[in-house]
Every structure is written in C-alpha cells, then in structure tokens.
Amino acid sequence: MTTTVSGEEKATSVLKAAWLIAVVTIVSKLIGFIRDIVIANYYGASMVSDAYYYAYQIPSLSLILLGGVGGPFHSATVAVFSKLIPSLREKPKDEVNKLYSVFMTATTLFFLILSVLMFVFAKPVMGLIISGGSSEMIELAALHLKIMTPLLVIGGIVGIYYGILIIYKQFMLPNLSPIIMSVAIIAISVAAAPNDQKGFALAWATTIGAILQLVIQYPNVRKLGFKVRPNFEFTNNPHFKEICELLFPAVLSSTVGQVHIYVDMFFTSSISEGAWTAIGYANRVFQFPVGILVTAFLVPLFPIFARLVAEKDYDGIRNYFNKGVGVLFFAAIPIIIGILVVGLDSVRLVFERGAFDAQATFMVTEALWFLSVSILPYVFRDSITRVYYSFNDSATPFIVAFSSIVLKFILNILFITKMHMGIGGITLSTSLVTLFNACVLGILMKKKMKMDYKTLFVNLLKMLAAGIAAFVVCIICAYEFDNFVHLPAVMFCLMKIAVIFIICMLVYVPLNLLMKMDYASELALRIKNKLGR
Is residue 95 part of a domain? Predict the structure, then answer.
C-alpha cells in the first residue's frame, strides 16, 4: 500500500514539475522566437546571417549541447550528485563541496584551453567546415567565432549549475536563464543592426547574453551551499572518476552529434546563399514545440530514473518510461500534422518581413517538412538515452551516435550530390539518422533490462491511425480554406492555423478516445474539470 501511495505521489510530482517546466519553457521559447524574428528581419537569409550561424555552431556545442538542460554536464551532475545528497533541506557536506570544486576546476580548465585554441585557429577551422563557401564568407565567420569563443567556457559551468539546481527541484531558473541571452540579442540587434553590415553586433550580443546567463545562476547555487575553491585533485577521487566515466563518453556523443552538423554545414555551403540560415530557422521552429515537450517531461523524470536504477526497481522504470514516452508520442503527432499542413503559413507569419523574403520562407519550410518526420524517433531517442545515463552508461549512446556519422555522410551524398534535393535532402538525412539512432538504442537496452516496447508501440500504432485520419481531414480543409477565404496575409495565416488546429484536435482526440487511449482520456478529463470550474 505504501509503495502505491509513493508511486502516486511521484507521478503527481512529475506532472506538476512537467507543467511548471512546460510553462517556463514556453515563455523562454517565445522570447527565443522573437529573437529569431528580429534577426531575420534585420539580417534575412544572407551571407552575414550564414557567417553568424556557421560560427555559432562551435560555441553552441558547449553552451547548448554540452551545458544545456539535458546535456552531458547537466546529466552527469544529476546522476552523481543526486546520490550523494540524501536530504535537499540540508547544506551539502564537505565531501560533496569538494567534489563540486574539483568538477568546476576541471571543467573550467578544459574549456579555457579549447576556447584559446578556437580563437587562435578560427580561420582554418571555419575554412575546413565551410570549404564550399567563398573566402569572404570564411573570413567573416572566423571573426564571428573569435568574438564568441568565451561561450565555450561558460557552457560547461552553466551545465553544472543546471544540474545542481534541478537536483534541488529549482526547475524555474535553469529554464528561464536562456531568456537572458535572447533579450540581450534582441536589444543589441535592434539598437545596432541598421549600422551593422558585418553582423559583429550580433556576435557580441550572443557573448554578452551568455555571460549574463552565467551570472544569474551563480547566486542561487551559492545560496544552496556550493562554494568553488580551485581544486586540482583529479586523481584518487572515486566520485570524480564516476563523473568522468559518465561524462567523457557523453561529451564525445554530443560532439559526434555536432560532427553531424558540421557534415551538414560542409554540404550546405555548396547549395545556395542563405541555405544554412534557413536550416537553422527550420530547426528553431522544430524545437519550439518538440523542445518544450521533451524538456517538460524528461527533466523531472531523469532524477527519478536515476533513483529507480539505484533501487533496482525495473518495473518502475518501465512504467515511467512508457507513460512519459507515450504522452510525448500523443502530443507529437498533431505537431507533425500541423507542420505538414500549415508549416508554410506558420513560417510566413513568423519570419516573412524586412530582409526575410518569400524565397527564404519557402527554404525554411522545405527544410521543416522533411525534419518533421523525425519527431517520433527524436523523443524516443532522447528518452531512452536518459535511461542509459541512469545506468551510468553514456558509452553506448556515444558508440551509436559515432557509428551514424558514416550513415549521415552517405545520405548527404545521396540526397545532395546525386539526387540534388537541396535543403530538403539535408533535413531528410537528419531524420533518417535520428530514426537509426533511436532503433539501435532501443534494441541495445535489452543488455541492461527488458523494456515493455510492445505496449508502447501498439499504442503508437493506434495514435498513428488517428493521426492519419486527422491529417487527411486537415489537408482537405486547408485546400478549401485557401480557395474560399480571402483576408489580409497576417489574418489569413492566423485564422488558417487556428482553424486547422481545432479541426485536427476535433478529429484526433475523439478517435483516440474511441480506441480507449489513456492519454486522450486524461486530456479530456482535465479539459472537462477546467470547464467545470
């Protein structure tokens, strides 16, 4: 009886945390969207914007992939420190603080060396990555990279801060802090962009925003009792060794993921001017709903996975995994439908103004269409990766990601060089590689424990059947809307998106209810309760 109550309390806690994180992440993503709109308005899809986004891919490896929420530094911190902190109401013990100091010292040293190397060799690095670009493009991207090298140091430190705060259930600040960078970029771009012919103000705004992101985290971490004192005792420290064993393969895995991006950059530089900017915006549109979903559910679930593994409660892991991924699948299918049916209207509504023209809109949409098919494998891959991390195994995700580099390269050659698919070929290869990684990680999990995939994927098939029906109805309605509704561009796009969303949900949710899907029943019950109030 006690176990049941405890399980229900945990589920309620996860849902509350997920709801809080979802709200905060939505606010953060919305401001990030405004940032992208401002950049698109002033810089369009041009050589300057390409140079900025090409250069940003290197420091973003640290700030977003390695140090972001869900990244290796955050994950390693949660996986190890959560086991060493029995009570969240007490200050950390000296042993924990010592480990924290060692981890911070090692992280700062590593990224400081990396940032110096990137600063010194900025031009050769950018020349290698965008070899298909002009010499002017390479030179400009190298200058942008030099301005943004401090982000490399900041990223690792912010990742540790995120992990500490999330262990103490302070979900708000880690998910709000990216807003600081967005606000800095918006403010500086609006002030300087009209006279910023080379985009340097944009690069400086990014660096200033990252510094502010670090500054805002520090007081809360210190208030919890974590104090940094330079400590170089990297050996004879079993807990630091555990962090390194988890972190090193995870960093390599994320770095391998970045190599995929560099492969894309190599091929994209030969397509057309503005192509990499378009792919970047497509990724941002993609990450807006998907990032909210994955962050909202996996951030509170990950510490639970870690504790369940420590307790060897495999039934609990299966239960939480299937519920979490099932909810993500249920929410992902309408997102895919929305992208395929009104993706062009959404991109036009958000970005098409100023220097961002109709051609740029179509480039972004084309990339987005092919990227949308990766949503389902994307959420599964990220979810199953958290289970591997809970077992202190980051080596397997790394090996799988590393093995897919060759696949990525082959697919890009096939789609870009042979089939001349352009931007769509880049994002289609990304989707297929995501599917490959998800399948292999799912299969290899049996070495750790037996998962209940049958229940999960039977439910997915039912949801897909409802989704296909909803997609057909939405396509027909969108076609009729285009023919019979005549409004000013902004009103037309807003109304079309709203109408298609309502129609999609009116078809998709009832069909799931007919098939007795728990996720639809819970959604209907919550809506009913809200209306009842």
Answer: yes
